[in-house]
Specification:
Strand content: 35-45%
Number of strands: 10
Helix content: 10-25%
Strand order of the largest sheet: 3-6-5-4
Shape: elongated
Order of helices and strands: EEEHEEEEHEEEH
Low-confidence stretches: none
Largest sheet: 4 strands, mixed
Radius of gyration: 18 Å
Number of helices: 3
Distance between the termini: 36 Å
Length: about 160
Amino acid sequence: MGAKQTEKGRAVGLTVQPHLTVHDAKAAIDFYVKAFGAVEQFRLVEPSGRVGHAEIKIGDSLLMMNDEYPDFGARCPAAIGGSPVMFRIEVADADAAVERAVEAGATIVRPVKDEFYGDRMGMVACPFGYRWSLAQPKEVVTPEDMQKSWTKMLESGQV
């Protein structure tokens, strides 16, 4: 099911919609615009300045976020010892995408390299506690061939 824009500009019809809690949503939006080319859709701001809800698009994907609300259980990764969640963004040029993210303030987790599953990929961590794989598809690899390569890597101690 593809996303549809309503007359009021809201994206509807998405099956899964990630929602991040961050320490500083205004700064996070600015970072995601600079690092990943995000486009802000809107934000709801309290009189105190805290962002209760915001939506950005990265490519054709919607990402929602808000500032921390500990009283409602909405806590950022730093408040709970990190996040197990990672995101993957498909890009035309992984090397340039990682460089752009680093220039915006991300740190490299995994340098860009050609991977056994057919992507050229690098991973960065954003200043807000999430990891982002920036992946450039290079070839289609079957699940069977991926498994063979994965097993070979495990057996040789490369992982």
